[in-house]
Amino acid sequence: MSDFDYDLFVIGAGSGGVRASRIAASHGARVAVAEEYRVGGTCVIRGCVPKKLLVYGAHFAEDIHDARKFGWDVPECKFNWPVLRDNVLAEVDRLEGLYGQTLDNHKVTVLRTRATVVGPQKVRLADGTELTAGRILIATGGWPHVPEFPGSEHALTSNEVFHLETLPKRIIIAGGGYIANEFAGIFNEFGSKVTIVNRGDTILRGYDEQIRDRLLQISMTKGIDFKFNAPFQSIEKNDDGSLTVKLEGCEPMQADAVLVAAGRVPNSRGIGLEEVGVELDKDGAIKVDERNQSSVPSIFAVGDVTNRIQLTPVAIREGQAFSDTFFGGKPTVVDYANVPSAVFSHPPIGAVGMTEAEARNKLGSIRVYTSDFRAMKNVLAGRNERALYKMIVNAATDQVVGLHMIGPDAPEILQAAAIAVKAGLTKADFDATVALHPSMAEELVLLK
To answer: Structure pTM?
Structure first.
């Protein structure tokens, strides 16, 4: 037994913090985790899990309509937002309970309170209690960024959007990233009039240009409006509760809700890090090495608070690697190459590896293969919406260095295909694989 109260004290019980706590405890460490809000973190409580459930709910708008072409006598249907909202929130409650149960089963002490760092190996709880630990892990995640402008307090973020009392008839969404485009698709399918407002001129920066252009085209066809190069000037709340939104270069707009989805920033401020010498970058991210160690040797960080790759599975891998390295005797370094990602837009996007532009800049000589097609279901349903699959190949080695897809179930297909990219397989390996027919996924092995 050490002289410390705990071998590991974790601040933040999100995906990374929970995994690190559980694995460290399984290796025999005495672990405590402090969480001031709810166990489960952004992903489970107010992020990818409830959002994906809303995505599923939104898909029924088109599925019910299309079912008539498949012989189903579907009556006119009406969407009930409170029913979906309450069912989603109930599922979040259930998952939070499971996360807490997992920690209890591994004998992790869960402190449902705020904790701040007051020394290299000391933390202080909200009631003033001070505890010591051999190592401290910061896993406090990220927080929605809201630009400052007059009336910005009237805007929602992704934290509050799951709790809306009523479905807005008109919603303006600020941002061009995955959160903005996902919620645009969701609210559009629910029947809201959706406008995406972007201060720049591009959506989904970092994704392949052809894929994001296809999403823009399809979104506009579905009725989503886009305004580019239009920073917010102000939001004014009217007597009837509606909002008047003023943008640069645009006429004032009326809305029932404004959702700001302008990115997320590391949630590192106000917890004592800088006071004890932990180095942060200009965005507030904790600077760590490949072992997740900060500038203070006893303080570590994983997940979005490090701003490396803001994805839940990455935070989980980092938490696992940290605990295996320092408590399990199994030094582990996370490999950040070829991390797959998805945008659960309508239709969804899946991507892994280099975009065409990145590959041309890095490799010079490449080959690009594409398949532009209508899914069989869309053909019978009378939908003109087309899927686009794109493969980037290193011309010198025949290695597949990037896959980019937009279309029904693209993320589900991409997960398996990402294994091939991660393994360094070649275009010839794809060509040698017999197609699974009829499926959309078979296009990956039929690219010419």
So the answer is: 0.95
